[in-house]
Amino acid sequence: MSEQNEHAELQITGMRCASCSGRLEKNLNEMPGAEAVVNIATEKASVTFDPAVTSVDAIIATVRKAGFDAHAARDFAAEKQARAAMLRGERNLFLISALLTAPLLIEMALMLFGIHLMMPVWMQWLLATPVQFWAGARFYTGAWSALRSGGSNMDVLVALGTSAAYFLSVAVWLLDLDQPVYFEASAVLITLVLLGKLLEARAKGKASAALEALINLQPKIAHVEHNGQLLDVSAGSLRPEDIFVVRPGESVPVDGVVLEGSSSVDEAMLTGESLPQVKQPDAKVYAATLNQQGLLRCRALAVGSRTQLAAIIHLVEQAQGSKAAIQKLADRISAVFVPTVLAIASLTFAGWYLADAGFSAALINAVAVLVIACPCALGLATPTAVVVATGRAAHAGILVRDAAALERAHQLAVLVVDKTGTLTEGKPAVTDLLPAEGIAAELASSSTMQVLPLLNPLPQAGEEANVKSNFRSLELLRTAAALAQHSSHPLSRALLDHAGQIALPEATNLREQAGLGLSAELGGQTCVLGSPAFAKQQGVALDDAQLLALQTQGKSVIAVARGGALLGLIAFADRLRPSSRDAVARLHEMGVRVVMLSGDNQATAAAIAAQVGITEFRAEVLPQDKAALVESYKQEGRLVGMAGDGINDAPALAAADVGFAMKSGSDIALEAADITLMRNDLASVVDAISLSRATLRKIRQNLFFAFGYNVLGIPLAAAGMLNPMIAGAAMALSSVSVVSNALLLKRWRSPL
To answer: What is the pTM of this model?
Structure first.
């Protein structure tokens, strides 16, 4: 396939079982330049294709040739209306079929009480015929389409079974044979199958309730400033840079930044975090979050399909349309299931007939085998659970890229965790300015090895004359900030924030080594800013005891040198996220081995690891080495996860079996990850693994139920122990039970 591949999402109609979706997927994948995944739970086909080889029209033509119909997927509201109309049609079809079948069923019910009130055969025929060929027409068309394309499906089983009972009854009636008629059996079977599909369609609609709830959150109205006036306009008409106002109790219409005002905003729908977030000028606000208190005046940043909410909806839809690896087992079985059932039904008929049970009894037992063996439950077992789970995950602030990632997460044995921004808040702050002169003596004289406290407040521009005693600290900060102003490293940003309005000289000939430090020309001298190891590489002499005093407190330390001589040390501390320790403890309880990676030195990394309860860590890890470490853990034969947030985490996130990216991280990290955590919290990784395990339990339960149902039902039917109508009721119940069991995932709750 070419690099200019295009993607199409098609809504499919006419699929009724796993064999249908499997056959359609096979047909689409046989098209040149096309790769497709068909999901029966969402009734969608996701197709990636080479436009130089094929087109959307050709893909739709292939779908129709296979006996189904397709159209380009529309927005959720339009598809919901279409499904509602289809559901009404299904309901009406079932009701009419039930009304026609009721007299036949009443006749059977009376027989159970010893009342033999038989209606004329011609009347039974009159009631059963429209059920067979009008209400049941879908089974004939579906069966013909399947057979014509060289496959078989549920429709083949239903059409064969009911037709056998119907035409046997017609023959008995017309030829006046001494045999019972089974018009009621064929009519009841079709009615029960229609009831099962109606209940199944309703249950599948509930499975996408989480996605619908997200879509319904999108605000409809926005208050926009225009020529000094506030106008109420459609939220969809907002454009970037528009100024809008959010009143207390209203939802934010689009993503934006606060210009004026202060308030608390409930972002639970976006992050799963129940505590409101304080919003002040320069803070970002997101579409559909709820403003609780004050009036906010904001500027629009992202609108329409570019908002965080729209991105969440897209990822949820994408995940719900994907296929888990465990589904391949069901697909392989479904491919041979119907032919196998046909063979068993034929053997059942032959066995009973040769055993002198009579043609009628042999046929009815064969019909029971055909009816009870419907593969619907097998096809719904996995995708329905995935649809419910991904919706529940989104509600908890966990965005799953595809079903395969959700499936793999339950098997994670090792979780590699980046320190900064994952275990910590990722916002280091300067805690100590330590000019070189006098530092060693002062440290040596302290019995507790405490470092000098940071000067506070720091001198601002124009105040140098009043702080001559602090000149060395000011010079250290100014030099470090001048070098840091061209770097994007978190410590560099912390330096600049701390320097405030201090006037900074311009550095030239800047050279940066990722993860180590940088050097530049400043005032005609070569200056160095970086890790102690980097400073030593540049020939700068450091006092190791002095460094250790800071590092054992869990602080990160950088050295600043000028002209080859140490100018001083600057220490930083990054606060741990409040939930990190509990999350690590919970991961250990779940049997997950947690490994921390840090670019910090051994002493600092050890201090942080001890604070959160991690016993295994790697210090002084360069960004380019993170992916290699992930690969080394994978070589142990276990599934490895990676949690991180920065650009330098992207290769490791991509290398891991499951990558978890914090929403606050870089776009590159988010793209590389399999799961995005809208709540910047390691506890969300615990939630993702817990939900993955709950989902796999449901899938296994569903598959066991579907397999067990057929393993028990087919032999009973073949042995003549199941009436075809009971078999039909059991078949309908099995599909509804599988979907209902998957819906129980809505009850999942976070373990923390």
So the answer is: 0.67
